[in-house]
Amino acid sequence: DTEVTQTPKHLVMGMTNKKSLKCEQHMGHRAMYWYKQKAKKPPELMFVYSYEKLSINESVPSRFSPECPNSSLLNLHLHALQPEDSALYLCASSQVQVILYNEQFFGPGTRLTVL
Amino acid sequence: AQSVTQLDSHVSVSEGTPVLLRCNYSSSYSPSLFWYVQHPNKGLQLLLKYTSAATLVKGINGFEAEFKKSETSFHLTKPSAHMSDAAEYFCVVSGPGNTPLVFGKGTRLSVIA
Are the CB atoms for B65 and B77 separated by under 8 Å? Predict the structure, then answer.
């Protein structure tokens, strides 16, 4: 299985709502990533988990809260978002590498709209 | 430090004609280079990767790229464009290990019938 799955595909939420995005992979990868992608822009890295521990947080606001409950799952909890947070949220996974290259496998994304 | 420059924000070709998407990179490491494709409202799919083996890299769907260290380039080519190739293409550079990927700004490829 060489697939990264993400649910839901689309999400509309109000600024006071709490919601979660989910990501799953069964490739045995121990590094997982969250990216945010605005229209006509490249993905921007938000968080990196390595061996289920948060290793990189790219100064993301606390209204985004990542969680890695096990080696196959990655969640992104959302609370009190702003309309400017509307974007495509992409999950990716890869092997944890020390020397070799970092080939990341991307999921299809969750299209988030904040009203 | 690493950076990627995609020289064209938009390329338009006729169906059946060659495709050339240009990418220049800068890296203080021996880089790994990737091309990803993104169709509208979809995730990113890896087209091909350079990892210090052969300098001419063949990918999926007839795409290939050549790593030229002297020119710090990694241009993507395809002999004959198909309508289904219309998408956004990202050139990406990575250092060793789990160094974060550095994305170019993307090139939108349009294919005209």
Answer: yes
